[in-house]
Amino acid sequence: MTQQEPLYLDDLVVGAEYPSAEHRLDAGQTVAFAREFDPQPFHLDAQAAKGTFFHGLAASGWHTAAITMRLLVDSVPLGNGIIGAGIELQWPRPTRPDDTLHVVSKIVEITPSRSKPDRGIVTVESLTLNQQGETCQRLVAKLVVMRRPG
User: Fold this and answer.
1) Which of 47, 56, 110, 135 has the most CB atoms around it within 10 Å of its CB?
2) What would the pLDDT profile of 58-86 be if each residue is shown by its tens digit?
């Protein structure tokens, strides 16, 4: 991926969208993540998962969130990094092995700080979509974003 110029508070505008690259998930990644961080049968074993709420192997929501974060780092290159100040997180459908995910992030609100003029809070909605364009995760994050230095 091409390195983008860092973005600062003054560069952002409400309504601007930032699409990410893609990440293809496979059963090996799904199971490996679950084994370490979310060891539940519907994340670990395709056969056992058939009789669960998910009716098949599903990636952990936290795995989807981690993939989303990785894609955000490259697609929304904030000059001071992606620094969270609060989130709302939803998983409207499961992420499945063999899904190819990408993220579309949209600037929803920009609030410059009154007490700290070198920064502001930016609200960003990031939709993590599968190859059919279906939303697997909706993340609304309030981010601390610095003004351009100098």
Assistant:
1) 110
2) 999 999 999 999 999 999 999 999 999 99
Helices (H), the chain: 27-37, 41-44, 46-49, 61-75
**Beta bridge partner(s), residue 124:** 107, 141
Q: How does pLDDT run across 15-70, given as a tens digit for each residue? A: 999 999 999 999 999 999 999 999 999 999 999 999 999 999 999 999 999 999 99
Structure tokens at 115: 């007490």
Which residues in the chain belong to E strands, given as ranges? 17-24, 83-90, 100-112, 119-129, 135-146
Q: How far apart are CA 110 and CA 104, in angstroms?
A: 18
**Would you say domain 9-146 falls under CATH 3.30.930.10?**
no
**Among 31, 12, 16, 11, CA closest to 104:** 16
